[in-house]
Every structure is written in structure tokens, then in C-alpha cells.
Amino acid sequence: MDHSYSNTKQHQKGKRLKLNDRTTIQELHSKGYSNRAIARELNCSPSTVGYELKRGTVSVYRYKAVEGQSTYELHKIKFKSITTDNGSEFADLSDLEQVSKTLVYYAHPYTSCDKGSVERHNGLIRRYIPKGDRMDKYSVEDIAKIEVWCNSLPRKILNYKTPEEYFDTELDRIYRRR
């Protein structure tokens, strides 16, 4: 937050919950705290708390931090590599190699075939936002509508499922394995 009167720490994007965070969720959830109140305590999104409660619930309304941690360890998503542009907005991405086993590759300049899916999605977005337009001309609602439209288009690479359907199927598959 950029409010000078805020007493919460800035959330670190990409930060994962640790066992002590899960223990805090267990304690506060058992005391009847809402997901939003727990999220405020942990300085994370309420949806993070909601997903964690689903992940670590071993019986009806009974969350266990250890169960949540073991499920996370079992199913944590590992990216072997990330391919991106050479743009300055991706400059810090190379730091990822130092803290994880994920390799970062930068595409050759002016070689869109190095990252075909990204270029395909950029083309979809360009139907609504012409190249060269400033993003601040568009409201958050406009961007959200474009996002929903893009994620509801079936993709050949996903066996003609939409990204939303494929994501939901993968989440179901992960939670069924427990």
C-alpha cells in the first residue's frame, strides 16, 4: 500500500506460505477469524487463505497446518524454464536463477517464433488495444473484460479447452491426489 497511515507491510509478490504461516492460519481459523482477517494478519490475499484452507482441510471444517504444508510440498509447481523478451521489464527475472532451479531464457531480438504462444496472446489483446496505445487510457474494467474474453477462448494447444477449463481440471487433479 502506498498510504502513509497504513500499518501493514508491503506484500511480496510470489511469496509462498511457510509452515509458521500455515500454523497462524490454523490458529486464527479455529478461533473463527474470516479469511480476510487472516489475510490481513499474514499480509497476503484472502484468496491465498481460502486456497490454503481447501488444501489443508483433512475433515469437514478441520484445517491442519502440517497437512497443508505436506500437500504444498507434494504438489508445488516447478517451472523448468521461462522464456521471455529482452525488455527492461524482465531484467530482474534473471535473479530467479540464483534462488531457484528455474532457468531463464531470453528470446532473440525480433524473433517472435522463439515464444509463439506469447505472440499469439499478444495478437488477441491487440484486437482490443492497438499497438502503441497507452495502457492508462483503459480502465481496470476494460482490461478485466479483455482478460475474461482471452481466457474463455478454446485453444488448440489445450485440446480445444479454454484456459479456465484447463486450469480448473488441473486444480481438481491436484486436490484429488491427496
Summarize the helices and strands and which ones pair or pack:
Layout: H1 19-30, H2 35-42, H3 46-56, E1 57-59, E2 62-63, H4 65-75, E3 81-84, H5 95-99, E4 103-106, H6 116-126, H7 140-151, H8 163-176
Parallel strand pairs: 3-4
Antiparallel strand pairs: 1-2
Helix pairs in contact: 1-4, 2-3, 3-4
What does this structure look like?
It is a single chain. This protein is mainly alpha-helical. Helix content is 47%, strand content 7%. It is built from eight helices and four strands, in the order H-H-H-E-E-H-E-H-E-H-H-H. The protein has helices at 19-30, 35-42, 46-56, 65-75, 95-99, 116-126, 140-151, 163-176; strands spanning 57-59, 62-63, 81-84, 103-106. The strands form two sheets. Strands 1-2 form a two-stranded antiparallel sheet. Strands 3-4 form a two-stranded parallel sheet. Strand 3, helix 5 (95-99) and strand 4 (103-106) form a beta-alpha-beta unit. The radius of gyration is 20 Å and the shape is globular. 10% of the residues are buried.
